[in-house]
Design a protein that fits this description.
165 residues, alpha/beta, Maf protein, 5-stranded mixed β-sheet, 5 strands
Length: 165
């Protein structure tokens, strides 16, 4: 996906949020704020983008958005349980309508046999109580994994809008 296609996707998400009078927040680990940056590149995003949490460390996940230290210890930061808690915690802290969360292993090191480099977990929480988690395994270098994760997260939110239109 080119930069202009990524911008178009962000614009679509923004228009959908605006039409719903909804807001979004992000809780990002491996993407380091790239999702928030992409969303706020859109003029007028202050109407629908609430805030972004860059929770790169486990301590930040616990302190900023209330991820349980027991969950982090039991499952690791790159897990379904953690992204679910990240999304719910960000939703609550920001008082937003939607929250996107992401935690993964961008590389080049840090992977394992169980969680190789390129493993990224995503969470989406909605004020309605709905929640979705998903895992992807991306190929490529660190930059590529982070970019693919950003695109996937935005598409995940866009799909939520299309399914609940």
């Amino acid at each position: 996906m080119t930069d202009s296609e990524l911008m178009q996707l962000s614009e679509q998400v923004g228009l959908a949020l605006k039409a719903r009078r909804a807001t979004v927040t992000t809780a990002e680990s491996c993407t380091g704020g790239w999702i928030a940056k992409t969303l706020t590149d859109i003029a007028g995003s202050s109407a629908w983008f609430e805030r972004g949490f860059v929770t790169y460390s486990n301590e930040a996940k616990a302190q900023m958005i209330g991820v349980s230290e027991a969950t982090l210890e039991a499952h690791g930061a790159v897990s379904e349980q953690v992204v679910a808690e990240m999304a719910v915690g960000a939703l609550r802290a920001a008082k937003a309508t939607y929250a996107l969360s992401v935690s993964g292993i961008a590389g080049p090191d840090g992977g394992s046999a169980e969680k190789p480099v390129g493993t990224v977990w995503f969470g989406l929480a909605c004020a309605s109580g709905q929640g979705i988690t998903h895992v992807e395994r991306f190929d490529g270098d660190r930059e590529s994994v982070r970019r693919q994760a950003t695109i996937f997260a935005l598409r995940m939110l866009w799909q939520q809008f299309r399914q609940n239109a």
